[in-house]
Design a protein that fits this description.
Length: about 325
């Protein structure tokens, strides 16, 4: 029964995606043949934004699932235990900086971290890695620097505040979930390892990558669709009226970053477009919060982590980011 339900759900989402692609390619033909008159332009705008989010995310998703599969096939539990520092507090520091060596966006990092946790990585270390890698990496630093050419210190501020936030969040997770299992129990068991000898690691890698891609892809599609709806129908003029408030503007921009769900490698250019109307602190809040939590990765988190833990993260992350931004802008700006 489970497999039948899963097949129906996956087929529906795949057909929905094909429907969006068809509308994008044959928009004029659809308008001509429509029995209900001309289709509103906003509908096609949703379609275009949806596909742009998917096309932007797919390369990183593929990277993430293959890295996850490689970890499953080639990295042992003993290796993880040797790499991670034994001191729970010191372990969060290298976890927050590892993105410098492995720049992975927020779309791809979740399956990687889930796999590392299954291999024995402590939960709080994995969460720090998950939150920091999409921000603290050379690709994001460069894009932020070029997006804010007139104020290049924004790139340094983004790295510094993100580092502090991820460390604090990781320590909070350690305090509350140090002995808890935060990963969801899989409802089905993949049979690939039983049918194929472990020595064929390359074949095992491809099997795990395909499983991961189909498991996560549907949540990406749903998240991208919701984000595209918000981008088209949400009135940004409401935001602009709050842009000059040092207390309210950061929260507004954090909400906007959650809704827009832009990849961390490109979100700096979106943020810079608000430079004339929003405070520097609120722009920084946009840059720090968005890669940690947005619509699409929220759905992915619910797919891989227990509901209670995801709700906890959704409560803690905004608070830590907002307080950190408030302190930073009060001291520096």
């Amino acid at each position: 029964m489970y497999y039948v339900t899963k097949f129906i759900k996956d087929s529906f989402i795949l057909l929905l995606f094909c429907h969006f692609v068809f509308l994008f390619l044959f928009a004029e033909l659809v308008n001509k043949l429509s029995l209900f008159g001309k289709i509103p332009g906003s509908f096609f705008n949703v379609n275009t934004i949806f596909l742009s989010i998917i096309l932007e995310a797919i390369p990183f998703i593929l990277l993430g699932v293959f890295v996850s599969a490689i970890i499953q096939a080639f990295v042992s539990e003993n290796t993880i235990q040797k790499i991670v520092p034994r001191n729970a507090y010191l372990a969060v520091i290298p976890a927050a900086l590892i993105g410098i060596l492995f720049p992975i966006c927020e779309c791809a990092i979740i399956p990687v971290v889930r796999r590392l946790m299954k291999k024995g990585m402590p939960a709080h270390v994995g969460i720090v890695f998950m939150l920091s890698a999409p921000i603290i990496n050379p690709v994001v630093y460069a894009s932020t620097y070029f997006a804010f050419k007139s104020t290049p210190y924004m790139a340094n501020a983004r790295m510094f505040v993100s580092f502090i936030c991820t460390i604090v969040i990781g320590l909070i997770v350690y305090h509350f979930f140090r002995k808890a299992d935060i990963l969801r129990v899989e409802k089905h068991i993949h049979q690939h390892d039983h049918h194929h000898p472990q020595k064929n690691k390359l074949l095992t890698t491809f099997y795990h990558a395909s499983d991961e891609l189909f498991d996560m892809g549907k949540f990406l599609l749903i998240g991208a669709f919701l984000a595209s709806l918000f981008q088209v129908f949400f009135d940004r003029n409401v935001l602009l009226s709050l842009g000059t408030s040092t207390t309210g503007a950061p929260a507004v921009m954090m909400g906007l970053s959650y809704v827009l769900s832009v990849c961390s490698a490109a979100d700096a250019f979106i943020a810079s477009s608000f430079s004339s109307t929003f405070t520097k602190g609120s722009l920084l809040a946009f840059l720090v919060f968005g890669p940690m939590l947005d619509i699409k990765n929220t759905l992915m988190l619910f797919a891989y982590f227990k509901k209670r833990f995801v709700l906890f993260l959704m409560f803690v992350i905004p608070i830590v980011v907002y307080i950190s931004i408030s302190i930073f802008q009060g001291i520096v700006w």
